[in-house]
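Quick sanity check, 5'-3' exonuclease domain-containing protein:
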Amino acid sequence: MKALAVALSPTAYTQTCFPCNFSLSIPFTTKKSVAQVTIKKTEARKVRTGVVADESSSSFTWSFHQTRGEQSLPESEFHDKRASKKRVFFLDVNPLCYEGNTPSLYSFGRWVSLFLSQVSRDDPVIAVFDGEKGSEHRRQLLPSYKAHRKKFLWHSSSSQRVSRGHVGRSHQVITDVLRKCNVPVIKVHGHEADDVVATLVGQVLSRGLRVVIASPDKDFKQLISEDVQLVMPLPELERWSFYTLRHYRAQYNCDPQSDLSLRCIVGDEADGVPGIQQMVPDFGRKTALKLIKKHGTLETLLNAAAVRTVGRPYAQEALTKYADYLRRNYEVLALKRDVDIQLHEDWLVERDTQNDTTSLSNFFKYLEQMKELTNNYRSHSSNGLNPDRK
């Protein structure tokens, strides 16, 4: 049985993989510098975010209590009055820990604060991390898979030794924040979070419930259905936005069942998966979409091309000559739905929100302290002093 580190419930959150003896309540006093941010306005909708702090400013502090008091997302966006099924949210944690391609705990705190206060509220939330060596299988198939992404360093570097027991606890701190907000956390060794979520989504749906996946990762679009939605962070607007089956059809002019097959042909630059255009420049998205809509799936298309003509000469030749190439892309991009993990009923209960304000406010105080300690260290270093010397 594969190694599994999981919190079955907030009250039983004592996994060796996630030590939680680190308190976020730090006796540290400072002035708070909170910036009120008004986001861009569009003709279609005017939206106002909560209270956020500019990461480049003198303070990381974000008053989560004030955020909860701000205007939330429109009620119609996160409550489908026609749907009576209970919703279960999956929170894809790793992508939220980045500001662009740069690792950032501030980014995690900002998006989680908005998510818990304005999106999920008291709906059940299950947080999922990438497991150790989760990408190894896909990288063996395709070395370029996610090769350009900077890895989030969970351990302290030599330049950060000033913080001693604080820096290097990123994973522990993130887990502790989620636990205190009554969000169970799952991480399965040898599997990416995407595969764990895909497996658990099937188990949730079998119970007659709806699913909302909170992630910027477009790989999850292959799971969209009437009962599976996405909610995606929009950095330019500082808010989350729901993405449904209707949105997908309007954007791509096809159904999500075609998403995976289409991306296998056109490639996925974000994941480092090259498309067939690198070998056959004329074989673009328009041609790929037309063929997939006609044949349904990549495998059906490849099987048809092996015995008869399915398109123009350049497309016919590409589908026969590079069939193995496309099948490899499929294996790399397809979400696995057979991870060795079982859904627990404890994860489906209504979330207790009473600790959200305190836990997240303490988290931002912690970030503020870490920033000051780092600045002090750099100041000493620039003056020729060694802060580590006794």
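Posting the structure with no commentary besides this: The first strand starts at residue 4 and ends at 6.
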